[in-house]
Recover the amino acids of this structure.
């Protein structure tokens, strides 16, 4: 497999993980998170700093738990108030992470970043065959997270989060502990973002702060909107389409040689914007609708006319 | 007085300069249907909010079955068995009619984070039990054939019935309904009257805020008339509606 294809698959995998996480937080539970890039960065630096000492698996678990804990803290800090505060707090969090990464050089290497991050299964990887292993690792990670989140979305937990998203007052009047539910959804999403960052760091083996710009957050929102809020399958399709579009438009430069780099990147973003607007006009609910539990699943013989 | 089912004493709640509740005291009896009537802005909805943890009173106490429950959060009140419907219907629009009902039962293992993933067989069994209850209730209120429709697609009256059915799945002790008859077609309103009577016969207690005097007269054993955040008159429906102070309160609003 060519190196370019490997890069593409890993890119899509990272985007899919980030998108799945945001789909749980915002798509399902209605909790906006504008600090996505900060969580991804935290996950990446978490493994970059700890993996050489404790090994890749404990390092990944550490990153996920760290991101979950910080998500919980941010959620507790702001969800009590109102949705708008969560937006502000998460934007602030993203900024703080960026500034810390740049300025706490003793830990993060500052603008130079961290190099030589050990990859998973490095010991059993044949020399020169590293890309196949990391590829399989990425796909397995996405599959595992997808299955776990799909179990959550289709469970009563997913249903009660949808209820909280629709109308938190009604949910609490029905006896649901709204605050605790929100904190849990936000923490699980944060953990998955941490895992996405870990995958990113393992693949590149070199990270620096410039890799974690707010565009990550923007792509994640685009993927959730395009895929359909609340649907994990839709999210995979959405994230895949956006990354495919981004990569495909890379070749525009070959077709239209007069375009320079800056114009091209602006054009690519513009095209994605147009794509999403068109999609929302044609299919306002996104590519795939949120899963729902049907009465016929319990009563297969009942012929409901609905 | 401590024997009362639900006892409200001296409740105060302000919104800006407006005293929505201004020392409101009243009580609801077990097994009865109590009407809460009064002109617009009397504080009826605010009272229900204070009783269900959605508004924190500034002064006064609420006690339920002998325990002080003043200021408990909404989900705790629901857990104690005080469940309400809303004046302006609040169906959960992205849930189907059936999902609205499946959501309601308390103590769902599948609503816990770990339980959802690990104890799948347990919550699936719970879901089946709840589904059977949900079906019975939907058949009872005539919404079963709409079970898999989006709840947003229901008519106003059907949404009110859905709210009542959803509340019943919590197996409440006290059901507080905020204007169950408002915006409901006359046949559906009769349906609601029939349902309240049946449920009362089964032992459920009600507090009903309502402007439709036909409905109040048909179902209420006892009526409190509220005006300007206080209880003006209490008594039977006939006593309350013939009291000159009540007539004045309603007319005063019209003038
Ligand atoms: N959330 C709120 N914010 C500001 N003012 C409020 C709020 N809720 C109630 N009020 C005010 O408190 C007073 C009592 O309102 P409430 O809704 O309890 O009356 P009500 O008896 O239910 O009236 P209606 O019959 O019209 O439903 C009104 O003056 C209302 O404007
Ligand atoms: Mg009202």
């Amino acid at each position: 497999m060519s190196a370019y294809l490997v890069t593409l698959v890993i890119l899509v995998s990272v985007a899919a993980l980030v998108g799945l996480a945001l789909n749980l937080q915002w798509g399902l539970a209605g909790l906006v998170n504008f600090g996505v890039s900060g969580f991804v960065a935290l996950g990446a630096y978490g493994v970059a700093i700890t993996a050489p000492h404790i090994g890749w698996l404990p390092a990944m678990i550490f990153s996920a738990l760290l991101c979950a804990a910080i998500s919980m803290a941010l959620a507790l800090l702001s969800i009590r108030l109102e949705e708008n505060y969560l937006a502000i707090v998460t934007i602030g969090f993203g900024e703080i992470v960026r500034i810390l990464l740049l300025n706490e050089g003793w830990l993060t290497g500052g603008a130079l970043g961290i190099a030589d991050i050990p990859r998973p299964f490095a010991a059993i990887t044949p020399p020169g065959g590293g890309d196949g292993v990391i590829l399989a690792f990425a796909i397995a990670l996405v599959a595992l997270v997808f299955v776990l989140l799909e179990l959550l979305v289709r469970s009563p937990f997913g249903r009660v989060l949808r209820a909280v998203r629709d109308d938190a007052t009604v949910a609490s009047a029905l006896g649901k502990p709204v605050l605790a539910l929100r904190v849990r959804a936000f923490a699980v999403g944060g953990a998955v973002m941490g895992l996405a960052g870990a995958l990113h760091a393992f693949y590149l083996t070199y990270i620096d702060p410039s890799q974690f710009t707010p565009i990550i957050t923007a792509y994640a929102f685009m993927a959730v909107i395009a895929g359909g809020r609340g649907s994990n399958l839709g999210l995979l399709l959405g994230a895949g389409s956006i990354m495919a579009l981004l990569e495909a438009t890379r070749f525009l430069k070959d077709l239209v040689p007069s375009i320079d780099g800056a114009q091209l990147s602006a054009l690519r973003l513009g095209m994605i914007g147009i794509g999403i607007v068109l999609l929302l006009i044609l299919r306002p609910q996104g590519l795939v609708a949120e899963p729902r539990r049907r009465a016929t699943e319990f009563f297969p013989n009942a012929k409901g006319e609905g | 007085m401590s024997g009362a089912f639900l006892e409200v004493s001296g409740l105060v709640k302000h919104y800006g300069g407006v005293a929505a509740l201004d020392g409101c005291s009243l009580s609801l009896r077990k097994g009865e249907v109590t009407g809460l009537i009064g002109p617009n802005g009397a504080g009826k909805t605010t009272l229900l909010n204070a009783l269900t943890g959605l508004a924190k009173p500034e002064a006064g106490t609420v006690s339920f079955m002998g325990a002080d429950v003043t200021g408990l959060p909404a989900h705790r009140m629901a857990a104690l068995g005080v469940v309400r419907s809303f004046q302006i219907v609040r169906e959960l629009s992205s849930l189907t009619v059936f999902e609205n009902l499946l959501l309601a039962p308390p103590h769902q293992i599948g609503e816990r984070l770990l339980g959802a993933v690990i104890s799948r067989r347990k919550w699936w069994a719970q879901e089946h039990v709840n589904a059977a209850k949900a079906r019975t209730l939907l058949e009872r209120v005539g919404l079963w054939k709409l079970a898999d429709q989006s709840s947003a697609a229901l008519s106003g009256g059907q949404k009110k019935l859905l709210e009542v059915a959803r509340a019943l799945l919590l197996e409440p002790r006290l059901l507080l309904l905020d204007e169950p008859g408002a915006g409901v077609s006359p046949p559906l309103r009769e349906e609601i009257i029939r349902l309240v009577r049946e449920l009362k016969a089964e032992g459920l207690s009600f507090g009903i805020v309502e402007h439709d005097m036909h409905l109040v007269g048909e179902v209420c054993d006892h009526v409190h008339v509220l005006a300007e955040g206080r209880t003006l008159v209490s008594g039977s429906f006939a006593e309350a509606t013939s009291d000159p102070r009540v007539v004045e309160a309603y007319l005063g609003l019209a003038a």
Notes: Chain A touches chain B through 40 residues (CB under 8 Å). The longest helix of chain A spans residues 178-204. Residues 153 and 159 of chain A are 7 Å apart (CA to CA). The two ends of chain A are 50 Å apart (CA to CA).
